[in-house]
Write a structure and sequence with these properties.
Shape: globular
Largest sheet: 2 strands, antiparallel
Oligomer: single chain
Order of helices and strands: HHHHHHEHHHHHEHH
Strand content: under 5%
Length: 300
């Protein structure tokens, strides 16, 4: 009998491409916007004034929808780790279109990343998600506040450290959104879907994660920001998926899943160390200001 291929595999491949393009476009927009050193939601408003950013958001939304559809069949450890493969797409497009210069170490690490994702694909077994209890839902809700507080303090960090820390926090937020989204795919009616609190947790975590990612990208290296996001987002989702959501590994391939996950994680963590800035913000020359204007600037 011929085995039917789960549609999640097709959604997964399309998701990787969509996220890769989204990373590139959002990075370009972040580079054109004045750097924010506070956890200011106004950054999203300023970024939204750019057509490039809106196009990036459209690609990310498409990637999010494709990821949501992929999670219906595929385990979280595969889908979340595969989001990191979009980083390879971003790097290739950056080199071809924006003349980015990637150091040799970064190219080798992207190769390791691809190898890790390939191992996970071979080890993953499609299966639908289990439902989660109210305690997990409450923990997901409480984590929104925790991430916002951490983001408030992390926004004061500068340079590569700021990219890595803010990107990591964004990854945890997107991981929480993924955890909420996997059991949400069990809803088969529109009313059940719209009244499920998991839907609104997905939206809120995604918005906070988007703000944190925008702040991270402003601090220099798109590769470092996105790699940190992917590394931080993969671990919680993988653990929760295997323990609580019914994620499965092909019998006898646990070693391959472990090897692939570790390789992917090491690659994205190392990328936060070796990645070089791809863009720099221009600094406007200072202009004399009256005391009133200076005070207004400080208040802003």
């Amino acid at each position: 009998m011929r085995q039917v291929v789960a549609p999640g595999w097709f959604f997964l491949a399309a998701m990787i491409m969509a996220y890769g393009v989204a990373n590139l476009l959002q990075s370009m927009a972040a580079a054109r916007t004045s750097v924010h050193h506070t956890f200011d939601p106004g950054l999203l408003v300023r970024l939204a004034g750019q057509r490039t950013y809106l196009l990036g958001i459209a690609c990310q939304t498409l990637g999010f929808i494709l990821a949501f559809l992929a999670r219906r069949d595929l385990p979280l450890f595969l889908v979340q780790a595969s989001v990191a493969a979009g980083l390879g797409v971003t790097a290739v497009l950056g080199v071809l279109l924006l003349k980015w210069s990637l150091p040799t170490a970064e190219v080798l690490l992207l190769g390791l990343l691809l190898s890790g994702i390939t191992a996970l694909v071979l080890a993953a077994q499609p299966a639908h998600s289990r439902r989660i209890g109210p305690v997990v839902v409450l923990l997901l809700a409480a984590s929104v506040l925790v991430m916002a507080v951490l983001g408030f303090f992390a926004a004061r960090l500068h340079g590569a450290l700021g990219s890595v820390v803010l990107g990591s926090l964004a990854g945890v937020d997107f991981s929480a959104a993924a955890i909420a989204a996997r059991p949400l795919t069990n809803e088969h009616t529109l009313v059940g879907f719209l009244t499920n609190p998991l839907l609104y947790l997905v939206v809120i975590h995604s918005l906070v994660g988007q703000l944190l990612l925008g702040l991270a990208m402003q601090r220099g290296s798109t590769t470092a920001a996105v790699a940190a996001m992917d590394a931080a987002g993969a671990v919680p989702a993988a653990i929760v998926g295997l323990l609580l959501l019914g994620d499965r590994i092909v019998p006898g391939r646990g070693w391959l899943a472990a090897t692939g996950f570790v390789a992917t994680l090491l690659a994205v963590i190392a990328l936060t160390r070796y990645a070089e800035p791809q863009h720099h913000h221009a600094t406007a020359p200072p202009r004399p200001a009256s005391p009133g204007l200076r005070a207004a600037a400080i208040r802003r």
